[in-house]
Amino acid sequence: MAKIKDVAEAAGVSPSTVSRVLCNGPVSDKVRKRVEEAMRQLDYRPNLAARRLRSQHTDTIGLIVSDIRNPFFTAVSRAVEDEAYRNGMRVILCNTDENPDKEAMYLRLMQEERVTGVIFAPTRQTVANLDPAALGFPVVMIDRASRDVTTDAVVLDNRRAAAALVEHLLAQGYRDIAGVFGNTSSTGMERHAGFAEAMQQAGLPAPAQFVAPSVEAAEQAVLAMLAAEQRPRALVVSNGVLMLGAVRALKSAGLHWPQDVALAGFDNDVWTELLGDGLTVIEQPVGEIGRAAMAMLLERLDDAERSPRIVVLQGKLLARGSSAPVA
Amino acid sequence: MAKIKDVAEAAGVSPSTVSRVLCNGPVSDKVRKRVEEAMRQLDYRPNLAARRLRSQHTDTIGLIVSDIRNPFFTAVSRAVEDEAYRNGMRVILCNTDENPDKEAMYLRLMQEERVTGVIFAPTRQTVANLDPAALGFPVVMIDRASRDVTTDAVVLDNRRAAAALVEHLLAQGYRDIAGVFGNTSSTGMERHAGFAEAMQQAGLPAPAQFVAPSVEAAEQAVLAMLAAEQRPRALVVSNGVLMLGAVRALKSAGLHWPQDVALAGFDNDVWTELLGDGLTVIEQPVGEIGRAAMAMLLERLDDAERSPRIVVLQGKLLARGSSAPVA
DNA sequence: GGTGCAATTGAAATCGATCCCAATTTTTGT
DNA sequence: ACAAAAATTGGGATCGATTTCAATTGCACC
């Protein structure tokens, strides 16, 4: 494969000049034309590894999520990637499966890649132990964040959103409401807090289950709740993956919503509006989250000193059939 | 950030020796210990750009799909990535939106990255124009392939699968069956061929629509079909994205399946089993497709000369409520 | 025609690793 | 204990680009 020296010889100029053509440096039109022609002749492609080594910037960002198969992360990723490529950056995608060891491994990989920055949805455990300053690149957290604002982050107003679900269910006439929350992310904790708060405000108990973030775990947990002495009249579920488990549990228990159990949760996945009269969910602005994260990262790269900030976005309550008023 | 020279000095050895420690070269245990300790002290991270430049292998593969939000590609990607990382390779993910210009752009990027190989789901147009030999890296096509076996590929037995859907519908008593197919991929064409063939074998006409590969396009097309004079009694839909459009069209037209129109399609997306009594679909072995593609790529890297081959995987018919026998 | 200044161009160092080859040390065999 | 063989180590070139700095060219103006 042709290198810059070959192009230089073919065009009768020095490698420096070819490089200048590549980087839009000062070159006379005549020479630029000749060089470009030579590049075409030789089908020249700059070697990005060499360029990165010499120029000391990789124009690459890392995107570390738990599982790209979770539609929330799929959508966010797509937005991040579009935005990144628009800004001339590549994306390295990593799936951690909510496993702190994998998180550490990928962070290490990001260091070896000398990435420009990282967008990261960490587990609670990693949030607690991580010192982003020691990493050598800026980090923007998404979906999850530490309580104190020490790292840039883009998150949903989780407490408000969870409370909004509760308030909605209360307004529809439900009282016996139970919650199911993911146990690995700060998001699950926040949503639980909002849930508990709103229930307490209504003077109601707030029974809650914390489960591993998988469909199967949620299905098992919900099946158990449904089989219990005091079956809840409504369920608040803290994300789309768990909601899928809940729906499966209801189906296999032969129960119907909202007649037997009302449902309300998070993430407006495509199927939620198709199920019966629709599932009531908080829709997250997934595209905006991805774009905001990328924008924050770019701003941070512009100014390493500016104080960290958290962008809090609001969810949108989509009230649908699964939380119809109590008959 | 520390470099190899710093580590060498700290450990009192030459850079060559440090490099050997990194690459498991021949080093005495004593020295290896010292070097490793120095690395820990300095929090050393090898610079992958430098390593790639010098060693002339990037251990990076490109994964080019149309849209990661399509659950089929999401699942395949996840399998590819797991398999890649397991083999010590990174993945660069690209979304082309079935746009040949983007495809060309990303292929060019892959050349600049000097990737080891590429796994690619190309549009028909690109399949027709592309000369994989000129790219400089091996390509394994997934989901789609050229008719003649000139490039490694992993595909479904699309004709058989589509025919299986038709045969199933016929067996259930349906006769007026129409098809909806994507118009940008060879996959759509193959599935149409299988559909048409099976219908012809039954002595039936095979009305078909070709649409852009988006939910909206499918929804519009299906709405039109449903409003036509002769509404079909059953629909074969060529992938999960289009199926979503079809379901939406039925819903908004106030029609029910299978009573008004039976449905059968591809891709066992999570929601297909939840809708009513379930949607009849051909399940693709998504994980296997990703793993097989990665395995093929590795074999090809091992032996550039072996003759190209196509791995054809079989889909699995999941007969569910949407194609219940005609009453 | 010569001078001064800006615009182009080229030479050579450099980024941080790997790798070839030669030098050195250690091990082995007798 | 000594020579030969094997194992380990170091020196220095190299991968393919960018970047600094100096040299050259072109042009305007006196």
SSE order and pairing:
Two copies of one chain form a homodimer.
Chain A: H1 4-11, H2 15-22, H3 29-42, H4 48-55, E1 60-65, H5 71-86, E2 90-95, H6 100-113, E3 117-120, H7 124-129, E4 139-142, E5 152-156, H8 158-171, E6 177-182, H9 186-201, E7 208-211, H10 215-227, E8 234-237, H11 240-252, E9 262-266, E10 280-283, H12 286-302, E11 310-313, E12 316-318
Parallel strand pairs in A: 1-2, 1-3, 3-4, 4-5, 5-11, 6-7, 6-8, 8-9, 9-10
Antiparallel strand pairs in A: 10-12
Helix pairs in contact in A: 1-2, 1-3, 5-12, 8-9, 10-11
Chain B binds a DNA duplex (30 and 30 nucleotides) through residues 3-5, 13-20, 22-23, 25-28, 31, 46-56.
Describe the structure.
2 copies of one chain form a homodimer. With 327 residues, the first copy, chain A, is α/β, with parallel strands linked by helices. Chain A folds into 3 domains: 4-46, lambda repressor-like DNA-binding domains (434 Repressor (Amino-terminal Domain)); 58-156 and 286-314, Rossmann fold, CATH 3.40.50; 158-284 and 317-323, Response regulator (Rossmann fold), CATH 3.40.50. Helices cover 45% and strands 17% of the residues of chain A. Chain A has 12 helices and 12 strands. A 6-stranded parallel β-sheet of chain A has the order 2-1-3-4-5-11, with helices on both faces. In chain A, helix 7 links the parallel strand 3 (117-120) and strand 4 (139-142). In chain A, helix 1 crosses helix 3. Chain A is elongated. Chain B binds a DNA duplex (30 and 30 nucleotides) through helix 2 and helix 4.
